[in-house]
Amino acid sequence: MKPPDVHYAWNGDVALAYQVVGAGPVDLVYLQGYCSNIDMNWESPHLARFLKGLAGFGRLIVMDRRGWGCSDRFSPTDVPPFETLTDDLQVVMDAAGSERAVIFTSYENATLVMLFAATHPERCAALVLVDPWVTWTATDETPWVSEEQEWDRIRQPSRRCRRRSPGHRWSSPPTVRSGSARQPGTRTPGTASAARDTRPAPTRTRRMAGAPFPSASPRPSA
């Protein structure tokens, strides 16, 4: 199966990446968890088989959440509120022509889609939540979740690795698809637009700079 094209929907100045796979009477929106990259997913035979299976149930809409994969980044000091992220989901559904869909997600995205369903019940036919996380630390209602001290222990190996080789994470940049060829970089449409407008790009995005997606739609004019 040829990997589907990457399309973009715009929420203000932010480009949101999505793909549409298959056809059917039911729309199924898949919002992947923390390791989402809708372009690179098709490089994994396991994920590709999984996505093909989902497409067998109806028309599959796969999206990268703001900040992940092929969608525009945001600054760690300017994390968008949940309400903005639910707006992103609605924008992608509108762009894909989906009036109502089953929404399938996992991990930390569970709270996002639950808020979306509560805010826009007419757009959500059903929710499918896999290993949902509703909190990151133990509470009286979720005593099985790790305490802050346990999270610190879990994070220590990655912190030591970053201290030993701070540039390693960026030494082999991800790749993006251009037809059948592969090009280095994950510059998103919003980043490319910012560069054209001569606005200084965030450090992280600039270090990941590469060829923009050739299929990227232009940013809508104000």
Describe the secondary-structure layout.
Layout: E1 7-11, E2 14-21, E3 27-31, H1 45-55, E4 59-63, H2 82-95, E5 101-106, H3 110-119, E6 124-130, H4 148-164, H5 168-171, E7 175-178, E8 181-184, H6 189-196, H7 203-207
Parallel strand pairs: 3-4, 3-5, 5-6
Antiparallel strand pairs: 1-2, 2-4, 7-8
Give a written overview of the molecule.
- The protein has a 6-stranded mixed sheet, sandwiched between helices.
- The protein has a single domain (7-134, 172-207), classed as Rossmann fold.
- It is α/β, with parallel strands linked by helices.
- The chain has helices at residues 45-55, 82-95, 110-119, 148-164, 168-171, 189-196, 203-207; strands spanning 7-11, 14-21, 27-31, 59-63, 101-106, 124-130, 175-178, 181-184.
- The termini are far apart.
- The relative contact order is 0.15.
How are the strands ordered across the major sheet?
1-2-4-3-5-6
* Average pLDDT level: 79
Ends apart, CA distance between termini: 38 Å
Topology pattern, helix = H, strand = E? EEEHEHEHEHHEEHH
Total count of helical runs of at least 4 residues: 7
Whole-number total of structural domains: 1
The CATH topology is what?
Rossmann fold
User: Helical content, roughly?
Assistant: 25-40%
> What percent of residues are in strands?
15-25%
- Whole-number radius of gyration? 18 Å
Shape estimate: globular
**Care to count the β-strands?**
8
